[in-house]
Amino acid sequence: MVPALMVHCLDEIDLRGMNEAGIYRTCAPEKDIHLLKEQLLHGRIRAGEMNSYSVHVIAGVVKSFLSSLKEPLVTYTSRELFTKIAYIDDDTDVQTVVCSLVPELPQPNRDTLAFLILHLQRVAENVACRMSVVTLAKAFGPMVIGHPCLDVSGLEKLRSVKEQHKTMEKLINITSDYWNCYGRYMETAVTPVYKGNGSSTKRTGFFTSPHF
User: Fold this and answer.
1) Given 3-state DSSP classes, what are the helix, strand and coil percentages for the chain, each rounded to the nearest 5?
2) Which end of the chain is more exposed for a tag (fewer CB within 10 A), N or C?
3) How many CB atoms lie within 10 A of CB 39?
4) How far apart are CA 48 and CA 25, in angstroms?
5) Please, which residues have CB within 8 angstroms of residue 2's CB and are 6 or more apart in sequence?
6) What radius of gyration do the chain's Cα atoms show?
């Protein structure tokens, strides 16, 4: 249950953006991001039809979409439990806790989280992207982990931000084998993609748009 927008955008970045240094650091024009986002949300552009858009615009759409959700992928009610992994040093213990928490998320959140993290792992592993796990955690922590519901200030706010980044970092470092349990593709599924008078096919997954 991953939104079509996320599937199309992350697929396109995997295809064209893995040689772009700082793919999630570089800013793109807001008007271009807004235009593409609206087209995707309203089904006016399909997979394979984003070649005219810079991958930085597409990356901007990903961040804009996640930021616009009513709550982060890790829901407000789950945040406190998830952020406990920020203070666990042993990787095996971290994975044990995550394995107990992720299935409790709403399915759209869980599937989208897995799909996103698998993508971020590929970005981190690609030297040309120059995006470390730490850098990606800082970029996506606010959208995935979020902030406490209660207003905080001063040292408590600083602690919350560090906790957010560290939690996201540990989620990215969880083995891809685990996330693949939720985010795997049905590689054999295809759907027609028509262009002009011709036609072609493109793979699709079993993901559907969730009700965020």
Assistant:
1) 60, 5, 35
2) C
3) 17
4) 24
5) 108, 111, 112, 115, 183, 205, 207, 208, 210
6) 17
Task: Judge contact between 61 and 40, C-beta under 8 A.
Answer: yes
Residue 138 tokens read as 């800082």
What is the identity of the amino acid at 142?
A: P
Architecture of domain 4-203 in this structure: Orthogonal Bundle (1.10)
> Whole-angstrom Cα distance, residue 21 to residue 132?
11
Terminal-residue alpha carbon distance, the chain = 10
How many CA atoms lie within 13 Å of 99's alpha carbon, on the beta-carbon side?
13
pTM of the model: 0.84
C-alpha to C-alpha distance for 212 and 184, rounded to whole angstroms? 21
- Amino acid letter at 96? T
Residue 93, both tokens: 């213990």
Return the pLDDT at 128: 94
Three-state DSSP state, 122: helix
